[in-house]
Amino acid sequence: MTETTWLDRDHIVAKPGFNRWLVPPAALAIHLCIGMAYGFSVFWLPLTRSLGITKSVACPDLTLLSALTTTTCDWRVADLGWMYTLFFVLLGSSAAIWGGWLERSGPRKAGLVSAICWCGGLLISAVGIITHQLWMMWLGSGVIGGIGLGLGYISPVSTLIKWFPDRRGMATGMAIMGFGGGALVGAPLAEWLMGMFRSPTSVGVWQTFVTMAVIYLCFMVPGALGYRVPPKGWVPDGWAPPAQTNAMITTGHVHLNNAHKTMAFWMIWIVLCLNVSAGIGVIGVASPMLQEIFGGTLIGQPSVGFTALDENQRKAVAIVAAGFTGLLSLFNIAGRFFWASLSDKIGRKATYATFFTLGIAMYAGAPWAAHHGGLAIFVAFICIILSMYGGGFATIPAYIADIFGTQFVGAIHGRILTAWSTAGIVGPVVVNYLREAQLAAGVPRSQVYDQTLYILASFLVVGFIANLLIRALAAKWFMPETEVAALQADLVTVNTGSGGIGRGGFDGKALLAWAVVGIPLLAGAFVTLKSAAALFR
What we know:
By secondary structure, the protein is an all-alpha fold. The protein has 19 helices and no strands. The chain has two domains: 12-57 and 67-238 and 504-537, MFS general substrate transporter like domains (Growth Hormone, Chain: A, Up-down Bundle); 245-487, MFS general substrate transporter like domains (Growth Hormone, Chain: A), CATH 1.20.1250.20. The termini are far apart.
């Protein structure tokens, strides 16, 4: 393939006058778009009526295999839900496979490939809806879009850590916050677009996919083009690397080919996998869990259990539960910035120790809160859990940089994200199968999640132990300085200080860039808070 040099890493080295605060909004522009993967469930119910429009055309003998190619039967939610699984399996695997290429080619090229895959996947899915071919949706959004998710997710990590050596956690927290916020912006937008495109002959989903693909392309391409990498030897003005008083923060660099040979790599993998398994298990059942546990309490009728609710009451309860899931999204986002920033102060190991200690207490205490402590305490427990779920994602890149150095941090992060792929299967499977087993055993609906929450607490016990076992690496794992210099040979060198690069703070240009990504995020937060207000009426 012909090299397009203006995309390569050595052609995007920042020049004097560049403001480092322009890089986080560039990352957010990509993450806010690909983060819509979290909000894809808004399409499921309309798509189950894509043929029948007002009512699903059901086929009792439909199997998952026949659903892939049927043109006469409407799809089921379970058939469509596999796209959600494909998203996160492909995210982790593509990040692992192409993380090394990203480090060599630079974030701009990776960001553009991400935009093409994510937006192109939406367009392929739109054709799949028009022709009623589920396999095209799986291929378009699930596989091709999933690859875009992986490359887009890790594209800014290495760059941000190098631009903010003084605040690694905060920098990655700012970008990864956007991934959590993608559904906050995208889901209301999708609902509005589907309403606008809905007609007697269409549920409005394929038109929504095409429109969102165009909108996302207009955000992701400028975001990718906005990436810059710092010159070799660059440091912020007035900052010097701290004295080596913390053995958990290395000044060396581990080669990508050796990282997975260390015990620390696998302990961090386990830490991320178990933290995510527990959190994603709760996310997957948040709405039904609240409805089944509290039933009529959600609408001021505490004596009415979930199974005794009439149709109108169930609709009212579902609206309150939708507000609950929106509130969880806000805590997921806020936790990414809060916990990652806190980790700059107390250290990554201490931050994860807090996640697991507090998480064990919250998961184990949630059944008590559900049955004795009341709605407000239960909601508070789950919100804190989701803040730590998001915080775990945002803190892990800085943890990796501390242990393995920054030269291959993006690629190593990509390989560790296979833990997310694993968790995306483990968490929902554990929760859903346990729920079904409890219901089959005759356990009341208000108690079917108790055992599940205790098991998720046990996940965190194992995660706590794995975190304790993470140690600073021995000197043998780090590359010689000559090897590091050879890897950085294509970068311009700054001999002393910042060389006039990275300055500016929140000047006019930076404020404009932040406004472009910040206004949609704030609008999404406002809509979500309005919905969540129903929870406290």
